[in-house]
Amino acid sequence: MAVTGCSQCIKYMLFFLNFIFWLAGGVILGVALWLRHDSQTSNLLMLQFEGNQAPGTFYFSVYVLIATGALMMFVGFLGCYGAIQESQCLLGTFFTCLVILFACEVAAGIWCFVNRDTISTELINFYDTAYIKAVDPVGPPSKQAATKVLEVFHDTLECCGKGDDNDLFKAVQASVCSKMKNPIDPLISQSCHIKLRDLFTEKLHVIGLAALVIAVIMIFEMIFTMVLCCAVRNSPAY
Fold first, then answer.
1. How much is the pTM?
2. Is the pLDDT of residue 180 over 60?
3. Which of 28, 34, 52, 236 is 20 to 30 A from 66, alpha carbon to alpha carbon?
4. How far from chain centre, in Å, is Cα 226?
């Protein structure tokens, strides 16, 4: 059987949208791999202090993105093949996968919105834990390890300190900043709290924009798939 007229136009439009969807899956996969191996995030998230690993919420989100990108590429290929073959079975399977993916994307979007500050807050708390140990005048056994953790944060983000204005902070800030690979003026340095929030906010904006574009494509795909399925079912057999 073969569709004709407007249905044939929808068939090729669906094929084109699925091809874009397949490419989008590849882009999501590439972005996720970039986020996983980005030098800034990997340097910070691989840190250990007093036996505790830096919070892994960000990496968990990245692994979900990797799985999503790979699944999108598979579903996109399924949709392309189903549209060209005009197979009700393949189109039905594709539509089901698309609905599940769309529901998961909406759920993930809600989760990200609710927990949008969780990743940066966890890393800020991790930084503050090391910071307190490093500025302790008593000099606890872990002070040297804490100072090394701070150096990684400062070198990676080109920041220094929490932004406090007390005298102890200013004295320690001058001494810690002088140990950076690229020393900066402690009087004009930016707070690491601000740098951490900016780092992950920027990355979340990239992910959010990509998710919005993909959601729009998926809505059109679901509509075209239903129309094409009906056209295939009603088309005469030869």
1. 0.66
2. no
3. 52
4. 31
